[in-house]
Structure formats: C-alpha cells, structure tokens
Amino acid sequence: MDSAHTQAQALVDAAQLKAATILAAATADGEAAAQSESRMRSARVRRQAHEAVLTTRNALRLQLQGQVRESALALRTDERYPTLLDRLTERSRMLLGPDTTVTESPDGGVIAEAGSRRVDFSLPTLAAGTLDRMAPEVDGLWSR
C-alpha cells in the first residue's frame, strides 16, 4: 500500500509540476502579448500625435502664407508704392537688359520679359520668395 501511495503521490507531484509549467508558460505568453500590444498601442498613439502636430503646423504655415500674401497685396495702397515700382523696373532692366518689356502685375509689382527670359517681381511672388528664404526661422516657430 505504501508503494501505491508513493506512486499516487509521484503522479500528483508530476501533475502539479506540469500544471506549474503550463501556468508559467501561459503567464509568460500573456505578458509577452500584453507588452507587444502595449508597444503597438504606444506606437499608434505616437504616430497619431505626430500627425496631429504636422496637421497643425501645416495649417499654421498656410495661415502665415495667406497673411504674408495679403500684406504684400496691401503694399499697392502704400504711398511709397510708386517708388517700389520704379525700383523693381530698374532691377528688371538691370537683370534682363535695357530692351526689357516691363508691365505692372495685376497683383502689384512688375513682370519683365526680354525674349525668352522672364522675371516675376509681382508682390505675391516676392512675398512667397521671402517667406521661402525665411523657412528655417519660420520652421523654428513650430518647434518652440
């Protein structure tokens, strides 16, 4: 009877060891799955946050471009506008030559042509070019 009791105890011990091994493996698998899900969720949230930042930056950049364009167009009503036109015309002829045809742009500023060469000194183009050259400073506005 001792032998049966020993065998039964050995079977119970083996079953408990097997159950503990299965439980440990299941726990490890569950923890790994949870960590994986957590990393995926974290990456998704970071990506969504980054997209929101980019969308906001783009909206601000477009708003700034619109304001710069409107400010440039408003120069047409400034008392110094005729002097600006003279200077743009002079600059156009300096770049393209004395036989350059210079016309005032409907948006303000001038468009100059000499043969196949053309210079666009319209106010919106000048404003956009200035804003483009200021890109590092403008981009710095969003990263503060």
Blueprint of the fold:
Elements (H helix, E strand, L loop, with lengths): L1 H73 L6 H16 L4 E4 L4 E6 L2 E6 H11 L1 H8 L2
Antiparallel strand pairs: 1-2, 2-3
Kindly state the number of beta strands: 3
User: Over the alpha carbons, how many angstroms does the gyration radius reach?
Assistant: 37 Å
Distance between the termini: 82 Å
Mean pLDDT: 88
Major β-sheet annotation? 3 strands, antiparallel
Helix content: over 70%
Could you name the key traits of this structure?
144 residues; mainly alpha; 4 helices
Care to describe what's here?
- This protein has helices at 2-74, 81-96, 123-133, 135-142; strands spanning 101-104, 109-114, 117-122.
- With 144 residues, the chain is mostly helical.
- Strands 1-2-3 form a three-stranded antiparallel beta sheet.
- Strand 2 and strand 3 (117-122) form a beta hairpin.
- The protein is rod-shaped.
Short description:
This protein is mostly helical.
